Amino acid sequence: MTKKILRHQDLVVYKKSIEAAMRIFGLSKTFPKEETYSLTDQVRRSSRSVPANIAEAWRKRRYAAAFICKLNDAEGESAETQTWIEVAVRSGYLLRESAKELYCEYDEILAMLVSMENSPESWTLFKPKN
């Protein structure tokens, strides 16, 4: 039996994104001090924005367009996070193996977001009338 989703914290995509954001936070603690207000700040901000936008989407699911818009924002932040992960590897701040795991996690998150965006009727509160 499938567990009923009552709040955004019940969504698998939310759980994955908050865990990924926390991993990025931990890994970014080792970035050089001179990156504090650039790369460190950017990757933390974009990774935290993913679950925040998912939470907003969940609360806006009364309207399909608003729901999709916030999921699309989460999708954009996920892709941005992947970019910062790549920059961190190329700068020598992150090990390629750790980065690869995170990058793949964001690929999974992106796939889940796109799936939700492509079938909003499965998630929104009011179904369109035929």
Report on the structure:
The structure is a single chain. With 130 residues, this protein is mainly alpha-helical. It has one domain (11-29, 37-118): Up-down Bundle (de novo design (two linked rop proteins)), CATH 1.20.1440. It is 70% helix and 0% strand. It contains four helices and no strands. The protein has helices spanning 12-28, 36-59, 64-90, 96-118. Helix 1 (12-28) packs antiparallel against helix 2 (36-59), helix 1 (12-28) runs antiparallel to helix 4 and helix 2 packs antiparallel against helix 3. The chain is elongated, with a radius of gyration of 16 Å. The model has no long low-confidence stretch (mean pLDDT 94).
